[in-house]
Amino acid sequence: MTVRTVALVAHDHKKPELLAWVKQHRALLEPFKLVATGTTGKLISDETGLEVLRFKSGPLGGDQQIGALIAENQLDALFFFWDPLNPAPHDPDVKALLRLCSVWNVPVACTPATADLVVTSPLFSDTEHRRAMPDYGK
């Protein structure tokens, strides 16, 4: 069985919302390798006991580290609760991360409603399911 990787990211005003969502879906997330940006990862790990590989804080390069996972086909889903009402100084990094998800066909959820649909899909926990990978070599 292949262990798949899921990234968890949240802007400051959305961290409580992401934490509540992770607690609600802890059992579904537990089998996955979890990665997160710095503060978000620490919060999730401390509050849930889940093992989370922490990258740098988003503004300090954590968004790019997750983007590198996407570009290397090492990320299976991104849950990014971003705050559309409070622009962040690293907004270009956020847009680049979301763009990479579209480029490489990586499922991304930016709201609890969408995240609920993703984790409750039978495809989410199906270790045999592989998303279609675009071929840009042509």
UniProtKB/TrEMBL annotation:
Transmembrane regions listed in the UniProt entry? none
User: What EC number(s) would the UniProt record show?
Assistant: 4.2.3.3
Gene3D superfamilies under this entry? Methylglyoxal synthase-like domain
Q: Which SMART domains match?
A: MGS
Which interval of the chain is the signal sequence? none
Active-site residues, record numbering mapped to chain:
D63
Top-rank taxon of the source lineage equals Bacteria
Q: Which reaction is catalysed here? A: dihydroxyacetone phosphate = methylglyoxal + phosphate
| Domain MGS-like as annotated: residue spans | 1-138
This protein's name:
Methylglyoxal synthase
Q: Which organism is it from?
A: Alteromonas gilva
Lineage of this protein's species? Answer: Bacteria, Pseudomonadati, Pseudomonadota, Gammaproteobacteria, Alteromonadales
